[in-house]
Each structure stands twice: as C-alpha cells, then as structure tokens.
Amino acid sequence: MKCRLLAFTCLVTLAFGQTNPAAQAARKWRDQHERAIMDEFISLLAIPNVATDRPNIQRNAETIARMLEKRGVPARLVSVPGGNPVVFGEIKTPGATRTLVLYAHYDGQPLDPKEWATPPFTPTLRDKTLERDGQVIALPSAGTPFNPEWRLYARGSADDKAPIIAMLTALDAIKAAGLKTKSNIKFAFEGEEEAGSVNLAKTLAANKELFSGDLWLMCDGPVHQTRRPLIAFGARGAIRVDITVYGPRGELHSGHYGNWAPNPALSMARLLSSMKDESGRVLVEHFYDEVEPLSALEKRAVAEAPDIDGDLRKEFWLGSVDGGGKKLTELITLPSLNIRGLASSRIGAQASNVIPATANVTLDVRLVKGMDPQHTGQRVLEHIRKQGFFVTDQEPTAEERMSHAKVARVIVGRPEAATRTSMDLPISQEVIRTVDSVRGPAVKLPNMGGGLPLTSVERPLGTRTIVIPMGNHDNNQHSYNENLRLQNLWDGIELMAALLTM
Ligand SMILES: [Zn+2]
Fold first, then answer.
1. How far is the CA of 93 from the centre of ligand 1 (A)?
2. How much distance in Å is there from the Cα of 387 to the middle of ligand 1?
3. Do 107 and 166 fall within a single domain?
4. From CA 220, how far away is CA 105, in angstroms rounded?
5. Cα of 220 to ligand 1 centre, how many Å?
6. How confident is the model at residue 2 (pLDDT cuts 50, 70, 90)?
7. Within 389-501, where are the H helices?
8. Residue 416 has what pLDDT?
C-alpha cells in the first residue's frame, strides 16, 4: 500500500508546493532546531498522563502552562470541582475581528506497561516501526538532522501531545520570522479527553467568556491513510448498549437438558442477526429516518477523497467488506451498529458440556448529524421487544424470567450526539484554503468515523468545530507502543503556523 500512496503524496506536494509564508518560516525554524524541539517534546511525554493519575495530570497542566508563558502567552489552569484542569492561553491581536481556539488534549489512554516494548513514559526513538523490527537509537546531537521516518514511542506521542508541541514550536517560528497573528488566538488543552471528556462541557459552560471563539480547531486524531493532510468537519456520535439474554437459572448439563432448555447464546445470535442484513445495513425500524443528508459540497468531498479501500482490504486481510459497494469514506457518513464483544459461558479448552445461563453482548451505535440519540436508543429497545423479548434495565427477577419466554436486560449508555460543520461557510472555506496552502490539497471529510468531544464544545459555547489532525494513521493510538512518525510532527508545526496566522 505504502509505496503507491506515498508516491502519490510526493507528487501532490511537488505539484502544489508550499505557498504559505508562515509554513515556510516554520520549516526553516524546524530545520535549525530539531533537537531542541524533540527535547521539549520528550520532557513533556515523560510526565505520565493517565486521566485518573491526578498528581501527574496536575504536573502536565502546570508544565504546559509554563511552556506557553515562556513564549509570552499568558496561561492559567481552569477546572470545575472534581475535573482535571483545562490549560488556557490567549494571544490578543490588536484589531482582530475574530477568535480562533486551538484545542488538543494532554491526557492519554490508560495502559499496561507490561505490554509495551519500552516503558510508555520513557520516550524512545526507533529507526522504524516495531512491526518492521525498528531498533532503539540515540538522539542525534544538536545540528544533526533527524530522519523524518524515525518514530518516537511514548504514550501521548501521537494522541495527543504532538499538536501541543507543534503549536508552541509554530509560535516560536512565527515570532522569529517577524510574522504576526491576524486573529485572536486562544489555546485550550484538555486533561480528560480519553476519560470521556466528562467535565469539558461543564468547564466551558462555567467559563463561557474565557473560552468563547468563532471557531474551535480540534487538533486530534490521525491524518489520512495516504498521509495527505485531513480536515474533518464533524464527528460521529455514539451510544453504548449492553445486552444480557437469559437461559436457565444456572448452567445445565447439555446432554440431560439439550433439546429442551432454550440456549441463551443461540437466542442472542438470532437477536443480533435480526439487527443487520448481509450487506451490513441496520434493520432496526426508522434507524436512518433522522439522518441529515450530505450537501452537494459534502458529496463532492466524499467522491474526491482518495479510494484506499483496496489497499486497506489487503492491509487488514479482508476477504469481503460491508456496505453494498459504497466506499469507506461514504460509509462513515452513515450511522452504524457494531458488536463490540460477545460472550457466553466458556470456550476451547475451558468449555464444559453445558447450556449456558446467560449470553452477553456490548454494542455501539454510531450516530451522524440529525439523529436524536434518545430516539435512536428507543428504536433499538423497540427492535429487541419486537423480537419477542421482555426488556428490563434491571437484573430480572425469578418471576419475570418464568413469566416470559425471552428475557433481555438492556442498558443504554450516556449518548454523545454527532455534529457536522457546513463546508460552505466562509470560515470553513478559509480553513480549507489555509490547510491546502501548506502541503497541497487536503482530504476533506464531512465527518470523521470516530468520536470527539465536539458537542461538548459547541453546545455550551454556541460555537463551531473543525477537526485538524496531524498524527500518522499507524500510530497505535489507544493501544500499546503508541508512536509518532517524526515527519508528522514536522508537518504539524507547519500546519499550525499556517492556522495561527490565518
Ligand atoms: Zn485523542
């Protein structure tokens, strides 16, 4: 996959060149300061950043605030009781008529250090990815260039401390080149995104003035799989649904009771297969009713996005794909229903000859713009009832289990709604022009497939969000051995310089 896609990326960059003066200044600055940039990045990554680790979260926040202040940006920590601080910084630009807010998060996914090749908070440079047998290498001395294909391994290297370093380095570069910001700039660095952004909306609502802006640029997630820059104008929402289907009170001998006692695993299998057809279309009634159709511009962006499906099929060893012939890029603009995991009794060497007592599944429903999460949750519950189940959200009593042929306990989790900023807006068009001026045309998506706390920003502030990622797609985000490809950091610095001077 890589050779073909990379050749294409090179061609695009050559054909369009880099026309943005701030991005050019950023490249020059980075060329001369690679080691210093990496040193600052490494010292930030060395502070553990799991959201529940309060003392270290505080150290991260204070360190980032100091990094802003070192650059002449007044900074403070803003929080609500029980919440991790949001690091806030502000550049007031005389005569500016709008405010851009740059967002990233400094916390990282929880981890088990035993799974990591090198300790997650000891940032380690490798000459290739671990999958390609990358070896640990020492940092080159100041003045010696870094190979841009090297990888830096550490929790948070890609998700999501890299954008923080990119923004701060871009500030250095702009200042050194004598360039000026045109908009007011605010920085908002969250400390519990990976814990579900549980306090973000509250923190913003309690500090509306401080965090208000015309646009929030959400710098999180990976760029396109082709390594071309990516702009996503929204994100899908999600609802988690946990289902337990009940059989006998306890496991029964399958020889003595098979053919007689109903099997909850089979019952669950039937329920799940009733939810989707062979092509992956969701069969829950009215599931797609509220989906807001794509605009003409959004449809064009989807059509113009690179077709990588064939390459991805090879990379993931897929003999077939869902979607009835639609491309991945289009399919992520639609809602989905997915089995996250499925369990009933024991299997393999641990299996015993039983009829299980329960079967359990966790689903996620991905939402797109227009869908009311409450309605969607109700529709899923209604679908389960229509398959003949008595549905409860409590552990069913003996009475309930004996008086209904089929019993399911269903817990619908706290939903996150989807959102999408229109690509037609003047500010959206300006973001597109700015990003395109850095490394050639970006891939534009109406929304990302995954979730981001966009509604937690938009609702309390009445603002808009656009997602501008910079990590490499093969960064092991959320897993062990998370890593950043250095070229993505270098590109990110240029991108941030362009956005800061927009
Ligand atoms: Zn992230």
1. 29
2. 38
3. yes
4. 8
5. 5
6. very low
7. 398-403, 426-439, 454-461, 486-500
8. 87
Distance of CA 159 from the midpoint of ligand 1 (Å): 5
The pair of structure tokens assigned to 417 is 């709604």
Q: What is the pLDDT of residue 1?
A: 43
Give residue 198 CA to ligand 1 midpoint distance, Å: 14
Give 477 Cα–ligand 1 centroid separation in angstroms: 8
Contacts of 248 (CB under 8 A, 6+ apart): 257, 261, 355, 357
Residues 86 and 103 both lie in one domain: yes
> Is residue 477 very low, low, confident or very high in pLDDT (cuts 50, 70, 90)?
confident
Number of domains making up the chain: 2
How far apart are the CA of 482 and the centre of ligand 1, in A? 12
Q: Is the pLDDT of residue 13 over 60?
A: no
If you measure from the C-alpha of residue 105 to the centroid of ligand 1, how many angstroms do you get, rounded to a whole number? 7
Q: What is the mean pLDDT of residues 56-83?
A: 98
**How much distance in Å is there from the Cα of 419 to the middle of ligand 1?**
17
- Judgement on whether residues 359 and 245 belong to the same structural domain of the protein: yes
86 CA from centroid of ligand 1 (Å): 15
Assigned domain for 317 exists: no
Q: Are residues 263 and 350 located together in one domain of the fold?
A: yes
Residue 404 belongs to some domain of the structure: yes
Q: Which structural domain range is residue 251 located in?
A: 237-291+334-412
CA atoms of 57 and 137, how far apart (whole Å): 29
Determine the distance separating the centroid of ligand 1 and the alpha carbon of 232, expressed in angstroms. Answer: 14
Please give the pLDDT value at position 205: 98
- Whether 107 and 144 map to the same domain: the answer is yes
- Of 392, 412, 432, the residue at which a domain comes to its end is 412
For residues 256 and 399, membership in a common domain is answered with: yes
Query: What's this model's pTM, rounded to 2 decimal places?
Result: 0.89
Q: What is the mean pLDDT of the chain?
A: 95
Beta strands in 325-464 (DSSP E): 336-343, 354-355, 358-367, 390-392, 407-412, 419-420, 443-445
- Rounded to the nearest angstrom, the distance between the alpha carbon of 104 and the centre of ligand 1 is 8
Instruction: Read off the CATH number of the domain in which 386 is found.
Output: 3.30.70.360
**pLDDT, tens only, 231-285:** 999 999 999 999 999 999 999 999 999 999 999 999 999 999 999 999 999 999 9
- Measure CA of the first residue to CA of the last residue in the chain; give whole Å: 34
